Amino acid sequence: VFEIDDTKAWKSVLISATSYALGLFKISKSPWHLLPLAWAWTGTAVTGFLVIGHDCAHKSFSKNKLLEDIVGTLSFLPLIYPYEPWRF
């Protein structure tokens, strides 16, 4: 049986945000020959944001629906993709 777990949800947000920030740092500081690794790292972190936004759209992130819409919108910002079409 699926149950909404706020701790797991916020842990995934923390992991994705930290990985994304680290990836952007790696992109800015890496020599040219290591950039593909930094791009792959950052792309994986952005995929985490997609998963979080997807969970928010399906109302499986939190019991608070307003919070889900806010987190979903913010998690789709790095993707440069609107959250609203995913809600329905």
Automatic annotation (TrEMBL):
Protein's recorded name: Fad6
All residue ranges annotated as the Fatty acid desaturase domain in the record: 31-87
PANTHER family linked: OMEGA-6 FATTY ACID DESATURASE, CHLOROPLASTIC
GO BP terms: lipid metabolic process
Transmembrane residue ranges: 34-54
GO cellular component: membrane
Family (UniProt): Belongs to the fatty acid desaturase type 1 family.
Molecular function as annotated in GO: oxidoreductase activity
Pfam family, one: FA_desaturase
Keyword Transmembrane: yes
Location of the protein in the cell: Membrane
Organism: Helianthus annuus
Alphabetical UniProt keywords: Membrane, Oxidoreductase, Transmembrane, Transmembrane helix
Top-rank lineage group of the source organism: Eukaryota
